[in-house]
Write a structure and sequence with these properties.
Layout lengths: L1 E5 L4 H13 L2 E6 L13 E4 L5 H10 L4 E4 L6 H6 L1 H22 L3 E7 L22 H20 L2 E7 L1 E3 L17 H11 L2 E5 L11 E2 L1 E3 H14 L5 E6 L5 E2 H12 L4 E5 L8 E2 L4 H7 L8 H14 L2
């Protein structure tokens, strides 16, 4: 297929581009490099641009004869979204509206959309399935939910085919391909733990009195390669599917302390812990029920063990630019 990957110079997007190229798809990457890295795009055709530029995006879709869009481009820092919500509504909702409009102009009717478990807010039950109430706690989650609803309404009105994939905690890397996490600032636990291992520093643990098996928060970590496989399956589902939402997670979370212990085993290094107060809004546990993705998409994670995820991320940490 001829596929446009928005945000394809970013962490998950660059892994996605490699997988599509390996499959033999003709890939075009559209990224403004506000958070991505041009050196991560070594497959397909790279175009530097902004999805908010509807005329330019429409022309690109037509010129490249694009058949489907995999949409990763977004602002995604929770704290920043609270401090600057307008940025998130403009960059997420506004820019995605322009992208969908450009798709209509160009006659492209298939999209796989990168959403988030942040649409659910504090869990009312665990594990979290797709029918769980949607009560996001921050503008980041609110903008993703707004986009989900827009895609559903565009599906009903215009025949847009859209698969919404709600990630839990993406992690891991493809170090052999030179791909991994390079966020600035870095906010994700696993790379922060591995930086502490590499540099002899400490990692902050925010709260150790949660009602979990060791007092620290539980999160559902999913390998980036398994995420990308789910996108391919969602794209194939769109050949007959119309609109639906799918959770992506392993269904078995790890605590913060378990992640740190896994990193100690993988790296063979001591990792110091700085105990800190709880952060406002941090739920004790976030674990996915991904039964629907397994049943409908035929998706099955193949890298569930936290040691595997941390090990791949550690190889990247040692090689990254």
């Amino acid at each position: 297929m001829r596929i446009l990957v928005t945000g394809g110079a970013g962490y998950i997007g660059s892994h996605m581009v490699k997988l599509l190229a390996d499959r033999g798809d003709e890939v075009t990457v559209l990224d403004d490099l506000s958070t991505g890295h041009a050196d991560a795009v070594r497959w397909g055709t790279f175009v530097r641009g902004d999805i908010a530029d509807r005329p330019a995006t429409s022309n690109l879709l037509k010129d490249r004869r694009i058949e489907a869009v995999i949409h990763f481009a977004a602002a995604s820092l929770v704290g920043e979204s609270v401090a600057d919500p307008l940025k998130y509504y403009l960059r997420n909702v506004g820019a995605t509206t322009a992208l969908v409009s450009a798709m209509r102009d160009a006659g492209v009717d298939r999209m796989v959309f990168s959403s988030t478990a942040a649409v659910y807010g504090n869990p009312q039950r665990l594990p979290i399935d797709e029918d769980h109430p949607k009560e996001p706690l921050n503008p980041y989650g609110s903008t993703k939910l707004a986009i989900e609803r827009m895609l559903g309404e565009c599906s009903a009105a215009y025949g847009l085919r859209a698969a919404v994939l709600r990630y839990f905690n993406a992690a891991g890397a493809d170090a052999d391909a030179g791909l991994g996490e390079r966020h600035d600032p870095e906010t994700h636990l696993i790379p922060l733990v591995l930086r502490a291992a590499a540099g002899g520093g400490a990692v902050s643990v925010f709260g150790d009195d949660y009602p979990t098996r060791d007092g620290t928060c539980v999160r559902d970590y999913i390998h980036v390669a398994d995420l990308c496989d789910a996108h391919v399956r969602a794209l194939e589902w769109l050949a007959g599917g119309r609109y639906d939402c799918f959770n992506l997670g392993n269904g078995d979370g790890a605590t913060v302390r378990e992640v740190i212990e896994a990193a100690r085993r993988v790296t063979g290094r001591a990792i110091r812990i700085d105990k800190a107060a709880r952060r406002p809004g941090d739920p004790a546990s976030l674990v996915a029920d991904a039964t629907k993705a397994r049943r409908v998409l035929g998706w099955q994670p193949s890298r569930e063990r936290i040691e595997t995820i941390v090990g791949d991320a550690w190889r990247w940490e040692q090689r990254k630019p």
